[in-house]
Amino acid sequence: MSPRVLAALSRPTIGHLDPEFQALMEDIKAALQRLMGAPDHACIPLPAPGTAGMEAAIMNLLEPGDRAVIAVNGAFGGRMADMAGRAGAEVVTVEDEWGKPVDPAKVEEALKAAPTKVLAFVHAETSTGARSDAAALCKLARQYGALSIVDTVTSLGGIPVDAAAWDADAIYSGTQKCLSAPPGLSPFALSKRAQAAIAARKEKPRNWLCDFGLLMSYWGGEGGRTYHHTAPINALYGLHESLVLLFEEGQQAAYVRHARMHEALAAGLEAAGLKLLVDAEHRLPQLNAVLVPDGIDEAAVRTHVLKAWDLEIGAGLGPLKGKVWRIGLMGASATPWHVRLCLTALCEALAAQGFKVNGAEVLKAADAKLA
Amino acid sequence: MSPRVLAALSRPTIGHLDPEFQALMEDIKAALQRLMGAPDHACIPLPAPGTAGMEAAIMNLLEPGDRAVIAVNGAFGGRMADMAGRAGAEVVTVEDEWGKPVDPAKVEEALKAAPTKVLAFVHAETSTGARSDAAALCKLARQYGALSIVDTVTSLGGIPVDAAAWDADAIYSGTQKCLSAPPGLSPFALSKRAQAAIAARKEKPRNWLCDFGLLMSYWGGEGGRTYHHTAPINALYGLHESLVLLFEEGQQAAYVRHARMHEALAAGLEAAGLKLLVDAEHRLPQLNAVLVPDGIDEAAVRTHVLKAWDLEIGAGLGPLKGKVWRIGLMGASATPWHVRLCLTALCEALAAQGFKVNGAEVLKAADAKLA
């Protein structure tokens, strides 16, 4: 987190219907529209972690009997399929290997097979570090008359997210990744087309907290604000400050910074003799899944790095459990200092297990990309 | 908010799977058990505002075809009925006038009529300031083989909540009322009996984020923690600090303080010629619904008090819209200073509309109760 975001969290709590707070709500909505490239979408922060955005998208756009095509190439696609089943939808999953992007050809095949209400996929798979082609997948959805749901939890703020250019229908994210605000809120965008689909529903969404119509009666702001939930005031102060920080730097500048830090980290990892899980062309700069070398106790490496360097490296999930480490370079942690710290800590932990690695060479390789 | 709670929000964010954070999670669970009088319940804070607790209780305990009896004596009973319908339940509402407590005789009649899975009611109606008899209502639920759901959003920390003594099955609350932490979390307790009922469900709960089994795979802590949602770390720092503050004061001392501040406020209001909506025996000390005198522009009073005194008074909801003001004396705002501030501001705003009131007499009446 940026110290400015942490400081913002401590501002005095005011009422969720206070006019001063309502001005802040409007600021946040406008900032999210800009960040998501969504000038015509309704953009609001949901009052719960990123998963709430996923649930809001699924539960508002699907009702019993609807067909949903869900691309699964990691942990979060699987989660969407689970939720769509709870919404009463007929769920068709399109599977790709963990670490690979979603294959548009397979998705098209699934869309062709029957009329489909929703195509859902993950833009940036946090469990693998793979980036899928959001523009191509949203285009397929349009072509076959489906609404698109795009998970941008890990992408937003780190790589471009452009709802208008993609013509995406529902986009959601989290605050704790590249926005560097604490976890607990889920930025959410919905197209006019998706809003019309909700208005035409036969039954109410199965989730009250994430019911878009009720949410907008509070967040919409036209014709006054009707109480729905009590907005998490202080968390929203933090999100607001993180958006101010991002626009101070500039969105494009932030994307370039993430890309550069990734290149430096990747160069250092390569110099250490380590390999990344994902092919270069589909890699996310902000989430680096590193293959655990043979004979290395991966949990011991994470524990060492956490205890000796106060640095947390993520474990592998699902089929990648024990096989990869996941290194985040997100928002305020995408800096040269963090890249060097991480490489230093990782080399030390590997060396402690007898892995041959020359820390000086590793840092030199990373520094060459930072020059 | 207490300054200590606000300061806690700014502590450095650590990972939601970090061992240090997991120790904090265990502390919070134990503190909630103590606060809710629920040593044998599973107690966790849900990562969203109080409504999430309501949704978790309804969606986990009800499935399609179940009969639910829901007592409605204000805005929040109505919300529970809406949610129960979304869960697919057969919903029977038992209505009482807004401002009155739930009538156990009517509830018994509804329970008698057919086998019932759940009885749900609001302990402390935030929309009216009425307190219902939780012990009697939970006892009725047991008698007729139903599980009880008790909304304690406004009661927890302000008046006794005793899950074990009531033999209540699901209890939920919010952090922004008498706990004086920012909005955004929902303390939640579930009995062993309710957990067994969830284990016996025929289909999955319709809400993924509030799915109790999934929540406990992260919060349960036995056999390790499986990632479900990303816990709102900084908000949980705030909740933890608010619980520390409450136990420093002592639960009983906090209840006595709320009762005393209410008596002082009520004496001042009476001296001002104002009346409370709720009969004395069913009043909540922490939520005082004041009847708007004839000829007074109630919105203008609230605006005056907010602009001139930085003090927010709540408006009436539903059938009470325009008819009452709602004055909270909760947690850190249940102090003699707040009582005097509120009475002073209210008298000034009323006088500005030509209402005859002697501010000095009003404060004297309040002070007599504070001596």
Task: Kindly describe this structure.
Two copies of one chain form a homodimer. Chain A is α/β, with parallel strands linked by helices and 371 residues long. Chain A folds into two domains: 3-248, Type I PLP-dependent aspartate aminotransferase-like (Major domain) (Aspartate Aminotransferase, domain 2); 251-370, Alpha-Beta Complex (Aspartate Aminotransferase, domain 1). Chain A is built from 14 helices and ten strands. Chain A has a seven-stranded mixed beta sheet with strand order 1-7-6-5-4-2-3, sandwiched between helices. In chain A, strands 8-10-9 form a three-stranded antiparallel beta sheet, covered by helices on one side. In chain A, strand 5 (147-151), helix 7 (163-166) and strand 6 (170-172) form a beta-alpha-beta unit. In chain A, helix 1 (3-9) packs antiparallel against helix 10, helix 11 runs parallel beside helix 13 (336-351) and helix 11 packs antiparallel against helix 14 (359-370). At the A-B interface, helix 1, helix 3, helix 4 and helix 10 of A face helix 1, helix 3, helix 4 and helix 10 of B.
What key phrases describe this protein's structure?
homodimer, 371 residues, alpha/beta, Aspartate Aminotransferase, domain 2, Aspartate Aminotransferase, domain 1, 7-stranded mixed sheet, 3-stranded antiparallel sheet, 45% helix, globular, Aminotrans_V_dom (chains A, B), transferase (chains A, B), transaminase activity (chains A, B), SP_NH2Trfase/AEP_transaminase (chains A, B), Pyridoxal-phosphate-dependent aminotransferase family protein (chains A, B)
